[in-house]
User: Fold these one by one.
Assistant:
Number 1:
Amino acid sequence: MSTSGPIADLSYRNVTDSPLRKGGNWWVIARQLMQRVVKLRSFWVLTVLSGGHFLILAAVTYFIDSFAANMGGADFAGQFFEQIVWKDQFLNGFQFGHFLLMAILLMVGAGSIANDNRSNALLVYFSKPCSKLDYLVGKFVGIFLMLAIAMLIPAVFFMFYGAMNFREHGFLTDDPMMIPRALAGIFAVCAFQASVILGVSSLFNQGRLAGATYAGIYVLSGVFAQLARLVAETRDVAGIQGVLDTIHYLSLYGASEGLLKTILGTDGSFFVRDNQGAAEAIVPRPDLWLLLVMVVLPVIACWGLALRKVRAVEVVS
Amino acid sequence: MAVVTLENLTVQYGRFTALRDFSVAVPEGCVGLLGPNGAGKTTMLKTMLGFIKPAGGRGDVLGLEVGRDGMAIRQAVGYMPEQDCHIPGMNAVQFVAYAGELAGMPRNHAVRRAHEVLEYAGLGEARYRAIESYSTGMKQRIKFAQALVHGPKLLLLDEPTNGLDPKGRHEMLDLVRDISQNKGVNVLVCSHLLPDIERTCDSVVVIAGGQMKLQGSVSDLRGLNSNAVDVELREKSGEFLQAAARHGFELVSAKGTWYRLAAVGGHEELSKKVFLASREAGAQIRGLKPGARSLEEAFMEAIDVN
């Protein structure tokens, strides 16, 4: 009705012949979520910091490769690189940056549904031809892709760096499937964590509460798993070693780590392979069935929760 | 032709029945859904949109079956909810364009249309501000804009003047009137504010206690077409009433010096009889007009009588 604006539409008419967009609503929702996150400077800062292991590793390997002759003779570099298990570095990279990745996940996903609950945005979504599945898949894809970007940027940088500089030290030949496995592992971890935070977020009306709850579960389950490891390391518990190893994976972090270990096909190592003292602290990768239970069950539970809780109206029964 | 038809619709929240055997045929144009708080108005809208599954009965919206064709209904319908709703972190253009995209519009169309609709809704340059900073009136307008962005054939407005000051209310009602009268959009306005309905709507559905109480055009409900006249005398007069009765009038109601009289015949004929009766009774007439109830009277009557 306003006629004073610079583009006042005096001949306003209702439009009923607008062309329909191709593709589902889920992508519109995912894109909106990602557009919001990429504008956050903290997302990029955390992404760089979470890749600290790869940056340190690249610096160390560059230093040794360049100055080896001055340090321990010509053969020093060859011996050093012989010790490195390249595929384990992707696992180490995750272990190094997992708290920062959790912070990224909280930034991206904690408020994804909770904030919509608070502002009644679900009424807007569901009063349009947008299904519950469109909404949840859109949110999931948005969180998944942003987390994947945060994990992939440092990992892909390291892949390129290694492939360019350390081919002769077995970077691509030790395990020819290393890069596909690393990518698959990253995607699997992202999918797992995105599913869990989606379920947690759907339970709350405030992003902060959802974030605090997810962080609480993440940290407390991790502390519990670490305590079990401490018991295993300090006491003679040969009879229940397997149980303690299992407990290690009964946490959000542990399940993610187990997933990555299984997909990479490694138990992990500490930077170089002959570090005997540290090797005892390494928890062997989990049994496949156990892993399925620890990953698939929470994912199903969280999706079920989200499907149940996300609705346009509060229905009191 | 009815844009919405509901037949024996029953909606329950647990043990509480919000709509019971509710049947209505909503005609084209601007229709008011009138009822006290908790009457079931919003439940009816949400059931039509497919948010709530009915326990019984059936219905269709624009020829699409409620429950089965939920997505198609929401494609053809725009909904302005009663409560504040927005998507955090967006300005008005982004929000309305996003709503357009969710309704299936390509992005460039949705953005262009968002500007048009926001200008029409009177948001002007404020459309670039974050929605969180909007006043209540502006939030009402943006809800209106997001409901309209995809060019719906039917607009469902749930309490569109909620929380508005008199000026904002006046402007919102003008918008509602304009969209239904001049832009060819059918509008169903849900409200408990009778003056809003009276000002914007052609016909009214009165609902109370989850049941349809009354339906008809505003003029019919106000009794504009009835054979009644309102007579104001200089002072109360029993003689006048006796004279009127001799001319075939029946006293409908009396309030102070105002009398509502009903009789068989056209308005001109009734007026002549009133003047004859006043001359016979020696009563002075100060006012004479066709007998019309206010919508409020019709509403109260519907609620009480039924």
Number 2:
Amino acid sequence: MAFVNLPLLFGTLLVGVPIVLHLVMRPQPKPYLFPAIRFIQQRQELNRRSLRLRHWLLLLLRCLVIALAALALARPSVSSQLFGNWAMIIVLALLLILIGTLLLIGTMTRSGAVLLGGLGLLGAAVLAALLALLWTTLRHQDASLVGDRQAPVAAVMVFDSSPRMQYRQENQTRLERAQAMADQVVRELPPDSKVAVLDSRAIAPVFALDLASARKTIERVKITGAPRPLDRLLLTALQLLDPSDLQRKEIYVYSDLTAAAWDLERARVRELLAAARDVAVYVIDVGVEQPQNLALGSVELSSETVPLHSPLTVRTTVSCVGTGGKVGVELLIEDLDPTLPIVRDGTVVLPTARVHARQEVELSDDETGSVEFTVSGLTAGTRHAEVRLAREDALAIDNRRHVTVLVRDPWLVLIVAPRDVDSAALVEAIAPYERRVEHRAVFQPLVSTPDELTNHSLGDFAAVVLLDPAPMPAGSWEQLATYVRDGGQLALFLGHQAGDGTSFNEAAAQSVLPGKLGRPYRTPGRDVYLAPHSYDHPVLRPFRPIASSVPWGDFPVFRHWSVRDLAPQSAVILRYSNQQPALIEHSVGAGTVVTMTTPVTELDRPRGRAAWNELAGPNDWPRFILVNQILRYLVEHDAGHFNFETGQNVVLANRADRDPARYLLFAPGGETQPVQARDDRVTISTTDAPGIYRLKGERDGPVTRGFSVNVPEHASRLERTTAVQLDNSLGAGRYQLARNQDEIVRVQGRQREGREFFPFLVALVAVGVVLEQLLSNRFYREPDTGKPS
Amino acid sequence: MPSVEKYLKPAVINQIKRLDLRAQFVVRGFLQGLHASPFHGFSVEFSEHRKYTAGDDPKDIDWLVFAKTDKFYVKKFEAETNITGYLVMDLSHSMGYTYRQDLSKFDYAICLAASLCYLMIHQQDPVGLITFDQRVRDSLPPRSKRAHLGHVLSHLARLQPAGETDVAHSLVQIAAMLRHRSLVMIFSDLLVDTPPVVRALRQLRHGGHDVILFHILDEAEVAFPFSGAVELEEPETRQKVRLDADHFRHDYQEEVAAFRDAYRRECFQRGIDYVPLDTSMPFDKALLEYLLSRRARC
């Protein structure tokens, strides 16, 4: 509780005046001789009692009126949340006084014990309720600072600077509107106030030196592609305000109040806000009630690394908020120009982007459709593309999506197979003849025997495949181990050529194998087959949509190697139905080795021995996919990603022996920034703005690389948060909601000054005065009869 | 001479200092006021009827007898000479009380007694005077001579209210003193305990005496004109009471009314004429009461 005119509260001391008048200044009675005193004596006692009662009643009423008048003039106010409590306290106090008066009257007039007892009980109940309410109210009271509107404020301006705030209405983005309102709020803050500006970027906020610099900071708030949720911003704001010396602390949250602005930490925010009752929270809603928006969803690519001549599929969704209609979606592909980008005359010159395809989607209200583009004939290099809506709408941020893919020559794969192993089956599987002829094959296989292995420079191959390897000299194993350690990829398909496996358990072979080979597992029946438990691994991912319909049981495995003492860094990708490992992945140095414990090129009926499996049986499409995926996984494993979400740390592989050591980064806004490669990596952490980031370096001529950054799909969802959700986030009654400047001023007033009791008290004083008049008139009225004639 | 009637007002009569003149003015004013009243033959008593003869005043025809007998009779009156009146004066200190400081209860009583004495002596009725406080103090034997008027008046003029009083005891004494049937006119404020007084009155009445009780209170004792906080002191006992007069007035008036009602009821039952008076009331009420009482004796 606070008082506008605190000194006037001393006016309550004036209640002493009627008391002094009553007790001290009591008039001396006029003496009269009067013989008929006998008529007086009989009624005197009763009369004296009732007279005293009347006097006390009037005295009480007058004291009450004076106290209430002094209180009213002092203009007490309490915080809005506690106003109801205080009003109830006053009502209970008046009730208590009334009951006390009735008790007094009852005692003096010697009323019935039942009546007095009832009144006493009622009074005790009211007193208990009053004390309980008073205690509860005072407990919450301590930190509620109200009253002085001009006291300096420690304020944190929290801006939701998510991409949604770019929503444009009345030629003003939501952020611009928020900035204008915040500027006005700061302008009207009391002098000596401290203001910090906090936006969705992950920057540690500090209090501005003065209000002018705070306003400048507000002007500089920009949309960030990687917004932090409002919950976390609020937590930061609370932490910032906590050590402030100023007693009045306020947080202004400028947001479009979309549901996507909040995170899961709302429970914690609610707790902290409930604890920090000295912090007033104003939520300023700058959002639009019924937004209209067309949005492109996340882009799905067939692959981020596309072999030359292979088609690229670009899939995305178009969602509509509000009224639907026909929507044109365009795919633009940038020309490949290794000399660009370049800064010419202070401006960044970028390669030209041309419309490659255009589709139209018919959407009804609030519907989501999808579009798919297929691009083929892309030349090799880092290629940038853009999917965009043909027309602009209120929220521009989700009207375009950027795509970057690496188009490269087919991966050179060395297939090492003993002479009696059918390597052609594998070659056909990974590079079918038709594709090889048309230069559209993903892989370019080269078949070799183990004896020729030393003749090859393995570093030229993206991957090496050992098909059913026989025991090899230690030198060959060491060559392979060196290759893998240097980042090479090795696929091992073990089979009958391994003999009893003992040579594979020697140190040289073990340097690339995932563990020691045990006895081959044999089963005459068809009860063992490949049985994946989950399809999470990239190798198995293509099976995921058809997981239940893959006929693994049609391809039994009769024999396979068992592996024991698995290396610690190894992982089993696929198991047989007998739970033995079928496909094992493990890292060796910078490279990866994938080992399959049964061959994939087993003939249907091998001569002189039993077949190890029937994987290559008729209609063997699972084997086809599996082999392709193993190799794809191995070669793409190192290829990296080129498409990221805003805010993510981007790490690109950068081999010191073939890539430039220094790059110039061209960010989407046109800013350039030098980037140094370290530890075979280029790391870029400033990816707040969506768009295409280009890296340009020099190594035997210009080298251009790049990647795309897009805002997350959920960042542009415009569904509004409901009042209930907001209450859940912040706590009901813990914040003040305003939509415009007037409302801000009003809720500020309500929060800072609290609600005044003045009208309430003045009404009570008026009632008290009227009662006093009525009572005194009744007590002191001249009787109608009996006047001396 | 209509101006004579003004002397019936105590405020006016108080300006006349000589008691005989006061009595004279009061009675004259009273008689003048009664000029056309039905109490025409107040000074004579009815004795017999006789036949109407020419020359008789038609006023005297007894129409009741005419109604019964169809004959004219006239009422024949003769003067009564044997009503002995006693003026009994209370000498208590409280009788000397006056709020307005002009006419005390005692003055009022003396003035009234003088007037009655004057009236009776003029009718040749013997009048005596008895004064009492705690007991009978003085008594003048009843005489009907004109000279006796002077004695009575001069005695009355000398009386002073002082000390405490015992009305009941004094009345018992008086009842014992009076041998013949008499008209006892008591002038008192009766500010004593009621039951003994009532008993004494009964005893007096039992002795065959006609009693007129002039209960005289000060106008302040009836109206209670005080306001604000007052301290009232009883003059005889010096007992003091503090009270708020404004609040008490109503209660007080009720008490006084109850007190008077008690006496009125008692007196009515005993055939005593009770005349409640206060010092602001004109004297004619008291005189009329006397005449009514006297007439009832016929």
